[in-house]
From TrEMBL:
GO terms for molecular function: phosphatidylinositol binding. It is a peripheral membrane protein. This is Sorting nexin 7. It comes from Canis lupus familiaris (Dog). PROSITE patterns: PX. The keyword Protein transport applies. Keywords: Protein transport, Transport.
């Protein structure tokens, strides 16, 4: 083997390659008509201070005309649109159920932190009991994530919520912040439990079952500080060296990740802006109810009409609050989770490239080195096995992740569409009731007409969500 690399042999990894079956046609297969990465509008064309201009960038994008799996003649009925984007339910075969609840604050002389109760119920034989209850802090979740990445470098590990959130919520121990983090940690553990490979990780089992002192003892069993520093230095050196020839399928995967990251970050930014604008509109609308009540005290002929308008506004405010709650709980967390996923995917690709770079360096050393060729040949054989296992694991987990991503994003936008439909139905009922009262007053000649509050501004926000939805899925 002078100057050239041996052709890789077929080998068995001995490790589950993501555990996901081959994707069925029409679900995860590449969409027809998309031979390369789609054109993506540059981020700087978005000026979020001009709302209509923001969305016109998306609506005029030529890539939006190619809806891939959607028919170009989209039905006009909202309900028929909802039916198009729903996945069929899969059979429930879970044997591990995890709940994260009851956050509790702890204050010591050194620090203040929050722990969360984790209840695990399982029917698996490898567990000593069918139910466990432990308490964990955020640092323990970070440790688990690190161990999973160490054991499975090319599997897509679910992301953890950020340690600090600077924008919109500065207080770490704010009730809303704690509840948001609790939900994110709950989803993190359940995504691991649903993963066909990660769910059987030994560190994951220890995390769910060991008491605090047992977990601390288990953490100390890992490699020492010097060993970890050496691994980090080698990883950095390999990343600086780079990969000479990345396989074509992983080049396509990397292009997908870059485009996905740009789009999901834009959607997260605009969704947050839409939520902020609607919250401001809702707060302003709440002021009009009391104003109409005070107004009615000085207009004897319009008492009933003005009180009817005030009642309509009050009902619209309640419907709006419910809708805003659905937006903050259903859409925003899902979109932001996949922003974090995009960062995780970049890390997975770097770890895969590091493994291949290590193999390339050994092959290059064998080319120019005459001594110890037998030892290098043996090392190259092991590294080829490692690269093959890493590639197979990533490819299988990649298809599984794409399916879940499409399912989650579509479900989030579908739920939002249903919330919008229900909201408008309620708004129209209240407006029609007030309009009918005004008409009765006019016919009887006992009063004048006062227009009811309109929900028209929210029609624009629904249009924005629809454009964001089609913008995102125009190329995936």
């Amino acid at each position: 083997m002078e100057g050239e690399r041996r052709a890789p042999r077929a080998r068995s990894c001995g490790l589950p390659a993501g555990g996901a079956p081959a994707p069925s046609p029409g679900v995860d297969a590449p969409l027809p008509g998309r031979s390369g990465p789609p054109a993506l509008p540059r981020a700087e064309v978005l000026d979020l201070d001009e709302d209509e201009d923001d969305l016109e960038v998306f609506s005029k994008d030529a890539s939006l005309m190619d809806m891939n799996s959607f028919s170009p003649m989209m039905p006009t009925s909202p309900l028929s649109m909802i039916n198009q984007v729903k996945f069929e339910d899969e059979p429930d075969l879970k044997d591990l159920f995890i709940t994260v609840d009851e956050p509790e604050s702890h204050v010591t002389t050194i620090e203040t932190f929050i722990t969360y109760r984790i209840i695990t119920k399982t029917s698996r034989g490898e567990f000593d009991s069918s139910e466990f209850e432990v308490r964990r802090r955020y640092q323990d979740f970070l440790w688990l994530k690190g161990k999973l990445e160490e054991a499975h470098p090319t599997l897509i590990i679910p992301p953890l919520p950020e340690k600090f959130i600077v924008k919109g919520m500065v207080e770490r121990f704010n009730d809303d912040f704690i509840e948001t983090r609790r939900k994110a940690l709950h989803k993190f553990l359940n995504r691991i439990a649903d993963h066909p490979t990660l769910t059987f990780n030994e560190d994951f089992k220890v995390f769910l079952t060991a008491q605090a002192w047992e977990l601390s003892s288990h953490k100390k069993q890992g490699p020492g500080l010097l060993s970890r520093m050496g691994q980090t230095v080698r990883a950095v050196a390999m990343s600086m060296r780079g990969v000479k020839s990345r396989p074509e399928e992983f080049m396509e995967m990397n292009n997908f990740i870059e485009i996905f990251s740009q789009k999901i970050n834009l959607i997260d930014k605009i969704s947050q802006r839409i939520y902020k604008e609607e919250r401001e509109y809702s707060d302003e609308m709440k002021e009009y109810g009391p104003i109409h009540v005070l107004w009615s005290a000085s207009e004897e002929d319009l008492v009933d009409t003005l009180k009817g308008v005030a009642s309509c506004i009050d009902q619209c405010c309640k419907a709006t609050e419910k809708r805003m709650s659905g937006l903050s709980e259903a859409l925003l967390p899902v979109v932001h989770e996949y922003v974090l996923y995009s960062e995780m995917l970049m890390g997975v690709m770097k770890r895969r490239d590091q493994i291949q770079a290590e193999l390339d360096s050994k092959v290059e050393a064998l080319t120019y080195k005459k001594a110890d060729t037998d030892l290098l040949t043996e090392e190259i054989g092991k590294l080829e096995d490692k690269v093959e296992c890493a590639n197979n694991a990533l490819k299988a987990d990649w298809e599984r992740w794409k399916h879940n991503m499409q399912n989650d994003i579509k479900s989030a936008f579908t739920d939002m569409a249903e919330e919008n439909i229900h909201y408008y139905e309620q708004g129209f009922q209240h407006e029609n009731r007030t309009r009918g009262l005004n008409e009765q007053k006019i016919k009887s000649g006992s009063g004048s007409c006062v227009p009811a509050i309109s929900t028209l501004p929210f029609k624009t926000s629904t249009k924005k969500h629809a454009i964001l939805f089609f913008f995102f899925f125009s190329s995936f």
